[in-house]
Structure formats: C-alpha cells, structure tokens
Amino acid sequence: MIKFENIGLRYGVGPEVLNDVHFTLEPGSFHFLSGPSGAGKTSLMRLLYLGIRPTRGQISMFGQNVNDLDRHAMSHIRQKIGVVFQDFRLLQHLSTFDNVALPLRISGLKEKLIRKNVEELLDWVGLGDQMKRLPNTLSGGQQQRIAIARAVITKPRLLLADEPTGNLDDEIGFKLLGMFEQLNKGGTTIVIATHNELLMEKFRHPTLVLDQGELHIAPSRTGPLKKFLDGVF
Fold first, then answer.
1. Other CB atoms closer than 10 Å to residue 227's CB: what's the count?
2. pTM of the predicted structure, to 2 decimals
3. Which member of 12, 31, 179, 222 has the lowest number of beta carbons within 10 Å of its beta carbon?
4. Residue ranges of the domains in the chain?
5. Long-range CB contacts (< 8 A, 24+ apart) of 94-99?
6. Superfamily designation of domain 2-80+157-232
7. For each of the chain's 233 residues, which pLDDT tens digit applies?
8. Cα R_g (the chain), whole angstroms
9. Integer distance in angstroms from the first to the last C-alpha of the chain?
C-alpha cells in the first residue's frame, strides 16, 4: 500500500530531519510510530498524509508514485486517507453530528445517507446520545472520539493518528486503541504516532522507531524491541 524509498526531508537550508527513510506498509497492517522528541515523527506523519513532499527519494501510495502528481490527482489520493490530529481540530461552532458529517457533505452525499451513516458511527464510538452537543461542552476523550469518527466516516484505506492519546488518561487511551483495532480488523491500515510505552506494551503491534531522523523497524514491544527502545530513550 505504501512504500518509502530513500526518503530525505529538510526544511529550507537546514539539516535533514529525515535521512534515507525506507519502509513498506502492507494493506491491513497496524504500526506504531515512536521515538524521542525531535526525532522526526511529525514530519513523517506529514509525508504520510501528503501534507508535504520529500526533499529526495520516492513515495508510492496505492500503486502510484506521489512525488510528481498534480493537485487533482493528489486530492484523489488524500480521499483514501483519514487523519486524527493530536489537537482534534474540531469546528467548535458545529455540533458533534455536523463535525462528523462534514466530510460526507463535502463529497456531495445525499443528506438521508449522511444521517444514517453518521448516526451509526456515533453509536459505535459511544456518542449516540451526544449528537447535538458542541465540542467544547464535551470531555477530551469524547472530543477525541468525534475526531476519530470524522476521520473514518469516509471509510479510508489508511488511518493516521498523531498522538491520539497524548492528553488522555490511560484507561481512555486503551479504549481508543481498542476502537483502532476494530477498524484494523475491518481492513483499514493504521499508523499511530505515540510516546505512550504502556499502549505499545498492551497492544503489541510492529513499531517504526525514529531516532535522529533515521528509521528502524521492530516487530513487537517485547524482546528485541524493548531492548532497542531502552537504548533510544
């Protein structure tokens, strides 16, 4: 599904923040993205959701080389990607329902189908009784679930989450990761950037580890990976 080949990234004339990054993500896979602060995780996530282009190297997504795509073709690929940001990025003047419905309305789906899809999804994330509430009247965990629902309402093939549990307690974080795993079982490829070692211990998925702009891949959060991360952090 995704292939990074010898990717380098720098901002302006500064040093490279990513150096010869090379990896492949198979359809239906689930990976954590970890590493110390300043390692380049946010930059890698921006490349994954096509927010920026690499300085060098080649990125292939869904069978296409994305480096040289025009704006229209890039927009078509972005429609296959859902993103959950750490700061939620909800529209505060819109209700829970309307925040989640927004991507479907932009796509031109009929309102009857929008209502059916949004209501079903909000029931699934446990917010079926909060559809008329504004985001700032809800807890952080509830707002994060709105952000997740909005990211997956279009049934993306790839879901990216940048520190989705960073401002939440571990119990709520575990529940959110359980939702991500359910989405993954339905076929969605998932990448979650996180510092939370407890999450990586409990949900044992392969981890992409960034350190000083270089990427290492480890199979699980136990054994060799734990020893490796102990050396990084």
1. 10
2. 0.86
3. 12
4. 2-80+157-232, 90-155
5. 94/134, 94/135, 95/131, 95/132, 95/133, 95/134, 96/122, 96/127, 96/130, 96/131, 96/132, 96/133, 96/134, 96/135, 96/138, 96/146, 97/122, 97/131, 97/132, 99/135, 99/146, 99/150
6. P-loop containing nucleotide triphosphate hydrolases (3.40.50.300)
7. 899 999 999 999 889 999 999 999 999 999 999 988 888 898 999 999 999 999 999 999 999 999 888 888 998 899 899 999 888 899 999 999 999 999 999 989 999 999 999 999 999 888 999 999 999 999 988 998 899 899 999 989 999 999 887 767 778 788 888 888 989 999 999 999 988 888 888 888 999 999 888 998 886 654 444 443 444 33
8. 18
9. 30
